[in-house]
Specification:
The protein is α+β, with helices and mostly antiparallel strands and 332 residues long. The chain contains ten helices and nine strands. The strands form two sheets. It has a five-stranded mixed beta sheet with strand order 3-4-2-1-9. It binds flavin mononucleotide.
Length: 332
């Protein structure tokens, strides 16, 4: 593989979702004696970690896991086999993966479809269409997220949604009254124009979070003063409630390896959905507060550890969150 292919792969990898669009990754190309790229190393960039919401780096690993999945898919879509080894160096916890490039092999139709979804996928924070996600797609999403060590739980049992909504709102309230949380959020939402990271205003709907008809507390990226969530203004008709597909993605373990696997599963689920016009907004406040994370696992009877909570449905937006340039994240 040549350097142009490597560039193409990293261009696709950086399109992966990441918490607060921190893009906490670095890549390095490895070449054989003849100068052909034969492996790609993925490293954590801990300078971009979120000390307040993610002190153990769980979400950093999930973000990088999604990028690893996108890189693998990009490699396959270029007609090369590849093998991904997670945490290949026991002495270096920042070395998250080595992607070994193999022989030529035509991509499958599914690999092509998922690769084509990479530039289309985005985080939808506005309300979804009323049309439900069809059962066949729900089954396909379950399949995409289920591997040895990862699972998907659709919130379709009586009481699931109420339990989740209450715990999510509680976690969100706890986060919002923390001044350090507010500062960290401001660091990633008030970037200079042209910055290649963070959450730009264009990625946020013009309606405030309270008026989007979501029964689930969406993260308020426009919070300017700390304090509990403000109730919607009284008077006028309340927004009609939406009925998104809600899923929890979880893992058997709860360590860096499991978090990377969760990120890879997340990447597959989001691309499978986007290939059918369905988008997601993660709502991870409930998983960032350890007490609500434990309560969610207990009250939903989850066997294992919840890693992502996704609200999914048909959206009308398009990608607007910036990415850092490939040359800023890739060394050869
Ligand atoms: C681990 C993780 C946690 C996230 N948590 C949230 C969240 O709580 N609320 C939200 O609106 N988006 C959340 N996101 C989505 C990111 O903000 C989003 O991926 C990033 O801003 C890039 O935008 P894009 O997905 O549109 O490309 C999360 C993403 C990841 C990977």
């Amino acid at each position: 593989m040549n350097n142009d292919d490597l560039h193409t792969i990293i261009e696709m990898a950086v399109r992966a979702p990441s918490v607060h669009n921190t893009q906490p990754w670095r890549y390095s190309g490895h070449s054989d004696k003849r100068g052909n790229v034969d492996a790609i190393d993925v490293f954590a960039d801990r300078d971009r970690s979120l000390g307040v919401v993610d002190p153990f780096g769980r979400e950093l690993h999930i973000s990088c896991g999604a990028a690893i999945e996108f890189a693998e898919l990009a490699t396959r879509s270029l007609g090369r086999q590849c093998t991904v080894r997670l945490l290949p160096d026991p002495g270096d916890p920042d070395h998250l993966a080595r992607i070994e490039i193999g022989d030529e092999k035509s991509p499958t139709d599914e690999e092509v479809a998922l690769a084509q979804s990479v530039p289309l996928r985005y985080t939808e924070r506005d309300r979804f269409d009323d049309r439900p996600v069809p059962p066949e797609l729900v089954r396909a999403l379950r399949q995409s997220g289920t591997t040895v060590g990862t699972w998907i739980r659709v919130l379709d049992q009586p009481g699931d949604e109420v339990t989740t909504a209450v715990l999510l709102a509680h976690a969100d309230d706890l986060e919002r009254v923390n001044l350090e949380y507010e500062h960290e959020l401001a660091n990633w939402t008030q970037k200079e124009p042209g910055a290649g990271d963070g959450i730009p205003a264009s990625a946020l709907p013009s309606t405030p979070v309270e008026s989007r008809g979501s029964s689930f507390r969406l993260r308020d990226f426009e919070q300017t003063t700390p304090g509990p969530a403000v109730p919607p203004p009284s008077g006028g008709d309340p927004p009609s409630p939406e009925h998104p597909l809600m899923i929890v993605l979880g893992t058997d373990g709860d360590d860096p390896q499991a978090w990377l696997m969760a990120g890879r599963a997340l990447g597959r689920v989001l691309l499978r959905a986007a290939a059918d016009g369905v988008y997601a907004s993660p709502m991870t406040q409930v998983l960032e507060v350890s007490s609500t994370r434990a309560m969610l696992a207990g009250q939903l009877d989850l066997v294992g550890h919840p890693q992502m909570l996704l609200r999914m449905g048909y959206g009308h937006g398009h990608p607007t969150s910036p990415r850092r340039a490939v040359d800023d994240v890739l060394s050869t």
